[in-house]
Amino acid sequence: MSDALLEIRGLKVVFDGFTALDGVDLTVGQGELRFLIGPNGAGKTTLIDVVTGLTRPAEGSVRFAGTELTGRREHRIVRLGIGRTFQTSVVFEELTVVENLDLAAGFRRPLPALLRQRRGMSDQVAAALDTIGLGDLADRPAGVLSHGQRQWLEIGMLVAQRPRLLLLDEPVAGMSGDERDRTGELLTEIARDHTVVVVEHDMEFLRRYASQVTVLHEGRVLVEGDVATVQDDPRVQEVYLGRGREEAA
Amino acid sequence: MSARLRGHAPFAAVAVLLLVVAPLALPAFRLDELAKYLCFAIAALGIGLAWGQGGMLTLGQGVFFGLGGYATAMYLKLHDAGGDLPDFMVWSGVEELPALWRPFGAAGFALAAVVAVPVAVVLGALVFRQRVRGAYFAILTQALAAAFVILLVGQQGLTGGTNGLTNFYDVFGRDPEAEGTQRTLYFVTAGVLGALYLGARQLVRSRFGRLLVAVRDGEDRVRFLGYNPATVKTVTFAVSAGMAGLAGALFVPVVGIISPSLLGVVPSLELVVAVAVGGRYALAGAVLGAIVMNYAKTSFSEQWAGGWLYLEGALFVLVMTLAPRGAAGLYEQARDALARRRGTPAPAARPREAAT
Amino acid sequence: MRKPFLRPLAAAALLPAALLTACGGQDGGNASAGAGGNDGNTIKVGILHSLSGTMAISEVTVKNSESLATDEINARGGLLGKRLQPIVEDGASDWPTFAQKAQKLIRKDRVATVFGGWTSASRKAMLPVFERNKALLWYPVQYEGLESSPYIFYTGATTNQQIVPGLDYLKEKDKKRIYLVGSDYVFPRTANKIIKAYAQANGMQILGEEYTPLGHTEYSTLVNKIGEAKPDAVFNTLNGDSNVAFFKQLRSAGFDAGRLPVMSVSVAEEEVKGIGVQNIAGHPVAWNYYQTTGGRANEAFVRAFQARHRGAVTSDPMEAGYNAVHLWAEAVRRAGTTDVEAVKKAAAGLSLDLPEGRVTIDGATQHVHKTARIGVVQPDGLIKEVWSSREPIRPDPYLRSYPWAAGLSS
Amino acid sequence: MTSLLNQLPIGLSIGAVLLLTALGLTFTFGQMGVVNMAHGEFLMAGAYTAYLLQDWAGAQAVPVALPVAFLVAGALGWVLERTAIRHFYGRPLDTLLLTWGVSLILQQAARDLFGAPNVQVVAPSWLTGRVGLSGATLPHARLFIMALAVACVVGIWAYLGRSRQGRRMRAVMQNRELAAVSGVATGRVDQLTFFIGSGLAGVAGVALTLVGPVGPSIGTYYIVDAFLVVVAGGLGQLRGAVIAALALGMLNSFAEFWTDASLAKVVVFAVVVAFLQVRPQGLFVLRSRALT
User: Fold this and answer.
1) How many CB contacts within 8 angstroms connect chain B with chain D?
2) Could you tell me the CATH number of the domain that includes residue A228?
């Protein structure tokens, strides 16, 4: 499996006696766009939290390009080339759009360079700004952005980090129809030259943009495969139709 | 270009006021008082940086102020004693110069402000690495100030106890009570304040400054941008401590005394109050807050002693409830309102009041 | 986004600077007025105590008795044909403020003399200001000795007028095993050094020496240690609120005055009420003056003071402050001027009948001869004298005349 | 040896004082994120309540004052919550500074109302005795404080666990948003929490008149230690506060026995800092999945 970028084996996470993940195996290949779905409490976000160092697993291993990630601190994992977004977007409202992007692009800078003022825009930042299409708002504080724009800015910040693996946690939650389309296009564009894992509830969005899907249920992997296979799987239908239909809508 | 010039005009105006007008208009002892306020303003600048920009509410700046102050005072004492024991050690029954004092004989002044920095680095590294923050950090620094005072007071032979260190006869070759010396010290203090202000402003505008604001508003998010917030905070905390140390180092020759009562919980809090009233998000607000509040305290207690506590308390409650961004924030609001009436677009987005 | 950092600077800077400048102008005008506080029809004197902060509780009472004294002098026709004009300043329980206010009184107000201070720390902070400006300070509180500034007059007791007599009394009562308890600051530490030297020379035994931080309120461990050591008496140099906690906890652990007398040197009539009479009644204290001290001068003093402050008690530091004003005024009368050097010369050997009895200034040390008095706290909260040195004791701040104290002040 | 044994009950009684002073804070700080620096002045209000009741209740002022002080301090807290603190939820640092301003005003007000010197609160005679306990002696006053602390803890525990209001309070403590959408009027719960937290300070203030001074600045003597207990115990954690208070009480007792009072304070502080290195969130933590 030389092209596997992320390899998760036997992952178990326990919160105060509640088992959130129970022996999850997952492999994401280089260049892949993978969707992670499942009803509430299935452990999707927990899985991302473990990969990015926010949560410590009780058992199991997470290897990224051959490096073990468990036990490393969050910023170290980012420096290895993994970036993520959060369900509720966190951009720095007092900083301008460009400053937000510049910050994201800058963690490789040495300390002395940090002490200088930013002049203009680096290519990296300009490219990210172009990708997310917020050029008009470049010098406005992020606090004035709409919800959708903030999500895009977050994605832009992620791109500006130049990670090898992007983890997006519900990028279209709370978006209007137009914004979803725009985000979908953005996602497709990014997936062209990045490895991306998307956690999503929205089945419609899933059908339009996903190819490979992993379904989690009660802390375990239920099904894995392409969209059609997964949708037709009776177990998935049971899980979703039984209780989760309204959540998925 | 003209905008940049305009940006510097207020600074120049204040510089002229402090360096030319005040020395000409004020009698010597008022100038000496102003010099004292400027020392507090230097410490306040550090708090503005750590708290306003970095979100670290440090209630123990008195500790660093004290480290700087005691270092200078120890140097001056040794210098006065000229090879003998400092006077207070004689009363306290100390017979031989303690080892702790020896280094301060020579390069005392150079050491003065520097002492605070490594202490802050060690403390910051320990505390921030473990993600102790917000109210926890505030309470911890407050307890540190309390413990530091107890320690200082308990070691009378080393520190002069509650009396502190005072009675210096010779400050760098000059009589500290002479008006000429006081004038010189005033200029030195004002100069240091100006330089530190410009330095701090540069820091705030730099990428590091942007990063610091990001850490303040979303420490955990910053971690996922690949930075270690603990490092950013430790560096800022150390810079802020260094400023407090320098303030203490200048305070000693200006006022002629350093004692534990200047470093405890209450004086540390009063510095923070001054910053809050002046405007925590603006460095200039912090500086001016310290000057105005200390001036008000002096002149108010000359008129109605008990009333100062009411005034300070009430002012504080009002500022926190009605204008949490302090005087500087009010000024900005007024300016924006004016700009809106003239039809120019107002710069949007104020910093949110940081949660934790 | 970035400009705003500077703008408020200009706006707000104008306010305090303008204010300072404005009052600076005033100051300049005053500064040129007559020297030595001798200004036309008035003589200015400074009164500098903490009117706010933690020390206000004690110092305000001294300010009141000093004001009483200046008013008495004015009522009797003033001094050198002029009225005394007291200028009251607040030291705010903050030692640098004491130094700066002293400087203001001397340089701006040009006062003839200053009465002020309570804590050693405030005196130490003011000392260089008075010495450099060659101005006079009258310090009215008992203190730890080992000081004799040519520009300070000390009207409170030094150690040989309070601590040493206290020890003499304990020795006389055959209390030979002593436990030392004090707040952690200069006076208790110095006092205890003296006590230890005295004990060694007089066959007394020091069973323990404990200090607690100022404002400490938890004494159960200390009481336990005392209980274990089983001393005959405790010598107490605790300060302020700590005394309340100490006496309450000592009593509730079963130690009353009969079982374990506690000799206090910082508990006067003022403090007894807060401690609770039932907690301290029967314990001895050492001072030079009590409200109950006999004599016409004291009757008049107590009457005058209580006429102004109903229900108030008079205590040793208050009386020493009152004395300071009268002693200075008498010295000025004799010198015929308020000039500092002339007043100092006239004050040497000066003797007056004051509430505590005959008080004489010792020219060499600028302290006063004082009668030592041991009192016992009464159930009504006042203190009754049970022992006295009869004669005023010559002040000896460095304890040079006591062989056992050799080496204490090196 | 007996005196060393004596330190055990002394440690317990120091712990009881710490617990009483900190108990209210675990509520206001824990549930509401309010760093109430005026908590010490609510203690003071309780102490002065006992003083004022002496005229009426005579020597039994202390027990009579307990419920009254609870109401008085609680009312003060409630007014503070309604007028100022409710605008500050989610900004603990601002509440810290705000309440410090309030504490300055209350201290000066006490000075103006009751005078700067300490006042006298006479303990009832049944609280002045002591009991022997296998060589160790324990004053009745200390036993009373311990019993009061136990009573308060049990009362709070029962209230939180058994009553409807208490369960609502716990719900808000654990997840404010969820409680709000489940129909809990969080605003009313906040008012009640602040009332109870402040009221507990009043009760502690009455108890402290048995062992300490009664004056305008007593709040400042207890506040820093009380916060250390809350920080070490973990926010809003009753059992955390109990264990932390007892542990710090014991530590204080033995550290002072072997060294002195000043050093004992420094030791306590150092231990708390070291402890926070191991457990930055205190003894017990409320888990939350949100990225704060």
Assistant:
1) 123
2) 3.40.50.300
d(CA B39, CA B34): 9
- Whether the CB of A117 is below 8 Å from some CB of chain B: the reply is yes
Q: Domain-by-domain residue ranges, chain B? A: 2-261
Q: What is the 3-state secondary structure (H, E, C) of chain B?
A: CHHHHHHHHHHHHHHHHHHHHHHHHCCHHHHHHHHHHHHHHHHHHHHHHHHHHCCCCCCCHHHHHHHHHHHHHHHHHHHHHCCCCCHHHHHHCCCCCCHHHCCHHHHHHHHHHHHHHHHHHHHHHHHHHCCCCHHHHHHHHHHHHHHHHHHHHHCHHHHCHHHCEECCCCECCECCCCHHHHHHHHHHHHHHHHHHHHHHHHHHHEHHHHHHHHHHHHHHHHHCCCCCHHHHHHHHHHHHHHHHHHHHHHHHHHHCEECHHHCCHHHHHHHHHHHHHHCCCCHHHHHHHHHHHHHHHHHHHHHCCCHHHHHHHHHHHHHHHHCCCHHHHHHHHHHHHHHHHHCCCCCCCCCCCCCC
State phi, psi for B13 to the nearest 5 degrees. Answer: -60, -45
Tokens describing residue A162: 């130049």
Q: Could you give the CA distance from residue B63 to residue B242 in angstroms, rounded to a whole number?
A: 11
Determine, for residues A45 and D287 on separate chains, whether the beta-carbon distance falls below 8 Å.
Answer: no
What's residue D160's pLDDT? 85
| Interface with chain C: mutation pick from D221, D251, D258, highest number of C CBs within 10 Å | D221
Place of tokens 């009948």: C353
Q: What is the SS3 assignment for D146?
A: helix
Please report the pLDDT score of residue D284 as a whole number: 63
Q: Which residue has the higher pLDDT, D236 or D1?
A: D236
pLDDT tens profile B272-282 = 989 999 988 88
Contact with chain D for residue B188, Cβ under 8 A: no
Closest among C3, C364, C404, B138 to D92, alpha carbons compared? B138
Phi then psi for D221, rounded to 5 degrees? -75, -25
**Which is nearest to B254 in space by CA: B160, B164, B171?**
B171
Give the integer Cα–Cα distance in Å for A128 and B212. Answer: 22
Q: For residue B11, give how far its alpha carbon lies from the nearest alpha carbon of chain C (Å).
A: 7
| pLDDT for position D292 | 38
Backbone angles phi, psi at D145, to 5 degrees: -65, -40
Taken in order of first residue, the domains within chain C and their CATH numbers are: 159-292+372-405 (3.40.50.2300)
> Are residues D13 and D208 in contact, defined by beta-carbon separation less than 8 angstroms?
no
Interface of A with D (CB under 8 A): 15-16, 45, 54, 86, 88, 90
Range of the domain at A8: 4-92+147-248
CA atoms within 13 A on the CB side of A116: 8
pTM value is 0.87
| The predicted structure's pLDDT at residue B189 | 95
Residue D85 lies in a domain: yes
The per-residue pLDDT for B110 is 60
Distance, in angstroms, between C29 CA and closest chain D CA? Answer: 36
Pairwise pLDDT comparison (B221 vs C11), residue with the higher score: B221
Task: Please tell me which residue of chain A has the smallest CA distance to B353.
Answer: A94
Domains: count for chain D: 1
Residues from chain C contacting residue B14 (CB–CB below 8 Å)? 9-10, 13
Number of domains in chain A: 1
D93 touching B (Cβ < 8 Å): yes
A86 vs A49: CA distance, rounded Å: 10
Q: What is chain C's mean pLDDT, rounded?
A: 88
> What's the rounded mean pLDDT across residues D236-240?
81
C278-337 confidence digits (pLDDT tens): 999 999 999 999 999 999 999 999 999 999 998 889 999 999 999 999 999 999 999 999
At C313, the amino acid letter reads V
Which two tokens mark D264? 């004992």
What pLDDT is stored for residue B335 in this prediction?
80
